[in-house]
């Protein structure tokens, strides 16, 4: 029999015939002060300390905690979520017979994936090149401004076979030669030792030519993908010197110059106001000519020419339309091809040399 069964009952004075309430001590043997108060000292009635029973087992007759605990929020029954998944609360889960089964925590990565970060690296390369190409005090910007200015020649007159006046045609051919040769020459001067475009292991260009990189969707043209190798996950493999040179041409010239500055001059800062139709045709001629040069040298010597990218073909003049012009620019193409091949070979060599130098320092 528990202590609660033997404890004296206390009757309420409001009941008829009840006796006056007398204070009853919960612990036998503990004296009660005459005034019925403890004077703020609950140990005042124990001159020799608390009873052994109290100190040894203080909660003998207290109700177990599990019988009086309140269920937590996750333990309460919860109806299955029936709304759209786009606004589904995190808790998810379902209830069965009053028992809640929480949903598994979604596998949300804590950091961006590698493809997203690599896309940022590619944008850094393009931004760094645009700062060079569009520098008013640089060497490339004044050349491009000459063909879109108010007094520029109409280079589109050379398309579709030129015209009968050989003197005027010669002037236009010389103008086009001047633009292409100067632009390519100053591009080949870009080979810094530091920075985003530097020839060191932590540069963005080094990341560009590494194996195992997954480029953003739509980055490559189909004619470029035919020249590269990818694994089952879409990452680049077997990047040699030829493939590395192709990747560098693709970002230094094809994307940072042709498809951006030349084809979208207002959007990318070549001109702050809409350009004339003559200037637009001139940029189209220069873009077609420079891309033809890239297609020539993007493959190994003796392997022909890379196909016209179908993705941007409608914005350029076709090879058939430019056949007469390309025939007049054979010396320019040979000169620029030598510059670009020498530049690309040296650039890739320095990038690989930086890797080998770091490995040697690590093992010394």
Sum this structure up briefly.
This protein is mainly α. It is 42% helix and 3% strand. The longest helix has 34 residues, at 330-363.
Fold and architecture overview:
By secondary structure, the chain is mainly α. It has a domain at 139-192 and 247-358: GTPase Activation - p120GAP, domain 1 (Orthogonal Bundle). The chain has helices at residues 3-6, 52-56, 65-68, 114-133, 141-146, 166-187, 204-208, 222-225, 241-262, 277-297, 323-328, 330-363, and strands at 94-96, 99-101, 229-230, 236-237. A two-stranded antiparallel ribbon has the order 1-2. Strands 3-4 form a two-stranded antiparallel ribbon. A hairpin with a 5-residue loop joins strand 3 (229-230) and strand 4 (236-237). The chain starts with a helix and ends with a helix.
